[in-house]
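Hi Y.,

Following your request, here is the sequence exactly as I used it, all 246 residues.
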Amino acid sequence: MRFQNCIFDLYGTLVDIHTDEGDPRLWEKLALFYGYYNASYTPDELRDAFHRAVAALEAGQTRLRQDAHECFPEIPIEEAFARLYREKGVEADRALAVHTGQFFRVLSTEYIRLYDGALELLRRLRAAGRGVYLLSNAQQIFTEYEVRALGLFPLFDAIYLSSACGCRKPDAAFFRLLLEEQRIDPETAVMIGNDGVTDIGGAHSAGLDTIYIRSNISPREPLPAADYVLERMDLARVGDILLDVP
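Below is the corresponding structure, written out as tokens. Let me know if you'd prefer a different format.
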């Protein structure tokens, strides 16, 4: 049994998603929501204030990738939504900031769905006694709830999200955090992802084997030097590789 522990990326690997944070209707509806709590913004004013708040929280950080579905994975995004209330003299508690952020996420999401075979793959691995983990550059207040809504939550032994852990892929420290907390020998583990830099390069730096899947939302890049390369989405084949099925 070569791969005893399987570490998955989420978006572009198990979950297909498309978001549009530039949609003017999003900012119109979000401005109305803020108005419910006496924080009065025009849509354009709110959009600009949001980007300023995010920039302030990201100050001093270097972003390697910024895909829309990751939505500023380096920071707890709820803090940006809380700042927007304070700018209008409203003290919002964390619950309101989180709910505002989740409303933003729902408004910006055009679709979110599992790739064919995602549930079957995870169930197959668990039935075979493999450890199954999630390691994602993502916002906890979005992704934890999306994972639950899609039925994935009980299929992971543990979930690691960058906004909650204070580090992100491809930083080897993010991978090592999971390995150390779960007491996993890197030689027994494999990373499965759709990004040649953050998933594959980061995993290699932490001493992990890798499986790369080119999906519809993979970055445009040359095929990476992964241990296994799938040039199209095929989660059944991923399962065969993980379970040593010819």
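The beta strands are 5-8, 15-19, 109-114, 131-136, 158-161, 189-193, 209-213, 228-230.

Thanks again,
Q.
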